[in-house]
Amino acid sequence: MKIQGSLLKMITIYSTPVDYYLELENEKIHLNNLIGKQLKLSYLGAINCIKCGRKTTKSFHQGYCYPCYMTAPETSECVLKPELCRAHEGISRDMEWSKEHCLQDHFVYLALTSGLKVGVTRKSQIPTRWIDQGAIQAIKIAQTPNRFLAGQIEVDLKKYFDDKTNWRNMLVNKTDREINLLDQKKKAYELVQKRFKQYFIESNDITEIQYPVIEFPEKVNSIDLEKTIVINNILKGIKGQYLLFSEGQVINIRKYNGYKIELEY
């Protein structure tokens, strides 16, 4: 079967393992069913902005044309740095958008991706955010009424915890499974500034995440879709927003939001 369309990040449904769907031309393809099979993904040489739809020769911020990158609320600086959010002060590129995305309950969390990391996400994005990062375990540690406060707590904890994922280690399944998230939550509470302790939550629920992978690569070869126009290989699994193919080939689908492709399976 062949189908064409513009890429968007894979839709995920929390299950054991995670269910992944790729939506092309309003058709949802259940990618889990294609694992272990030959998959051909071809870049057709066109990019469309995922915000306004216009054609662009270069993608910014994972899928936007330059004008949208400069003006859209989805590309605001607080998306990557929550501590810079000013929506609680009435300052935003789009206050209606901010009411839905910034002025909502947020969680500060600890997750095991390539190692232990601290992060921030909107309440409605749990566990999607953890899945997209390739986390195998995660725990909520603090809850705030807006994005700014969660960002402040994250900044404070970044003195002691990493906030980045080594994506290569994550994809080869190299994670220290001896790390105890409950112990790390207690450590975070002890280390955080006193003014932030009121936001820590009592719940110690740990979310376990399994991914549909039949074989992890020993080392990864990241595919640049503009250089390797065609990927024609056996799909070995999916983790985070990456497709894992034979011979260590991997591609970050989210990186290529807006790229027109043909999928054959």
Describe the structure.
With 265 residues, this protein is an alpha+beta fold. It folds into two domains: 2-57 and 213-264, no CATH class; 76-208, no CATH class. It is built from seven helices and 14 strands. The chain has helices at 66-71, 77-80, 95-101, 128-132, 147-157, 167-171, 181-191; strands spanning 2-6, 11-13, 19-24, 27-30, 38-47, 106-112, 116-122, 137-144, 206-208, 221-222, 230-239, 242-245, 249-252, 259-264. The strands form three sheets. A seven-stranded mixed sheet has the order 1-14-5-11-12-13-10, with no helix packed on it. Strands 7-6-8-9 form a four-stranded antiparallel sheet. Strands 2-3-4 form a three-stranded antiparallel sheet. Strand 6 (106-112) and strand 7 form a beta hairpin.
